[in-house]
């Protein structure tokens, strides 16, 4: 077992990490608003790695890629199944994707949501993401299932429901595919004494209206994990939230892709 420290050029707190499929390259997102990819190859204990689209020379600690396309803390970062793409979400509500197959070109999309906290690929061109803590009740009152071409990733966060984004390779652009949580319609009613007490305890609020969210998660989603199928052909992914809840989502592979 060997421990080595990658020190340069990071001068800020690292918030997120993800390993490349070859188990040699390491992506890191930091509080200095930057996404970086380093070589973690240790020649004393590992065989020489094959060249990748990110570069062929990989001494330990080598900076293979660096981008400052966002203007916020990088909360989450993720490689695609092929390893030729990396996506990250930042505190400025921006989603970015770098494509090594296109000379490290970076596509970015500024969303209208609160900051996204987590992101993962569910196909080579599709992502799922989610929003961070601090969302107000009602931010995610309704939505429609997302659709995307074969390939994508899902970010999530403050809005209490996962969201679908797709990468259009021909245009080198990211597009929003929709929110994936379809809440049930519920009739408006006043709060019971118990619910008012719970609001005071949890939210420091005594609103007389029922402020319960209609989404599956009642607080920010903090993590997304691919459950079955891998990042290239995900058939199920799992979301966990700050409400203590865990939800499993089915990905039905059709043409186009549908998540429900």
UniProtKB/TrEMBL annotation:
Q: Provide the alphabetized UniProt keywords.
A: Actin-binding, Cytoplasm, Cytoskeleton, Nucleus, Repeat, WD repeat
Cellular component aspect of the GO annotation: Arp2/3 protein complex; nucleus
What InterPro entries does the database record attribute to this sequence?
A: ARPC1 (IPR017383), WD40/YVTN_repeat-like_dom_sf (IPR015943), WD40_repeat_dom_sf (IPR036322), WD40_rpt (IPR001680)
One Pfam entry name: WD40
* Molecular function GO terms recorded: actin filament binding
The cross-references to SMART domains, in alphabetical order and at most eight, read: WD40
- Which GO biological process entries does UniProt record here? Arp2/3 complex-mediated actin nucleation
Question: Subcellular location, in the record's words?
Answer: Cytoplasm, Cytoskeleton; Nucleus
Transmembrane stretches in the record are none
Please explain the role this protein plays, according to its UniProt record: Component of the Arp2/3 complex, a multiprotein complex that mediates actin polymerization upon stimulation by nucleation-promoting factor (NPF). The Arp2/3 complex mediates the formation of branched actin networks in the cytoplasm, providing the force for cell motility. In addition to its role in the cytoplasmic cytoskeleton, the Arp2/3 complex also promotes actin polymerization in the nucleus, thereby regulating gene transcription and repair of damaged DNA.
| Family from the record | Belongs to the WD repeat ARPC1 family.
The protein here is known as ARC1B protein
Its source organism is Cettia cetti
Q: Which gene encodes it?
A: Arpc1b
């Amino acid at each position: 077992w060997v421990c080595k420290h990658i020190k340069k050029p990071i001068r800020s707190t690292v918030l997120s990490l993800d390993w490349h499929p070859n188990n040699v390259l390491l992506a890191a997102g930091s509080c200095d608003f930057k996404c970086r990819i380093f070589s973690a190859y240790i020649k004393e204990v590992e065989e020489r790695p094959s060249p990748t689209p990110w570069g062929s020379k990989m001494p330990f600690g080598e900076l293979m890629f660096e981008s400052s396309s966002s203007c916020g803390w990088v909360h989450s970062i993720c490689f695609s199944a092929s390893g030729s793409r990396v996506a990250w979400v930042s505190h400025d509500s921006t989603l970015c994707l770098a494509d090594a197959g296109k000379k490290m070109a970076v596509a970015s999309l500024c969303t209208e949501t609160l900051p996204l906290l987590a992101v993962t690929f569910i196909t080579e061109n599709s992502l799922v993401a989610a929003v961070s803590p601090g969302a107000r009740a009602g931010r995610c009152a309704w939505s429609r299932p997302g659709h995307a071409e074969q390939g994508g990733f899902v970010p999530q966060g403050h809005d209490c429901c996962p969201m679908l984004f797709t990468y259009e390779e021909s245009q080198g652009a990211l597009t929003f595919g929709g929110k994936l949580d379809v809440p049930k319609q519920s009739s408006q009613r006043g709060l019971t004494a118990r619910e008012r007490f719970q609001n005071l305890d949890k939210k420091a609020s005594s609103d007389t209206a029922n402020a319960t969210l209609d989404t599956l998660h009642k607080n920010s989603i903090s993590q997304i994990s691919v459950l079955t199928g891998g990042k290239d052909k995900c058939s199920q992914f799992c979301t966990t939230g700050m409400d203590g809840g865990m939800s499993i989502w089915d990905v039905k592979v059709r043409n186009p892709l549908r998540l429900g």
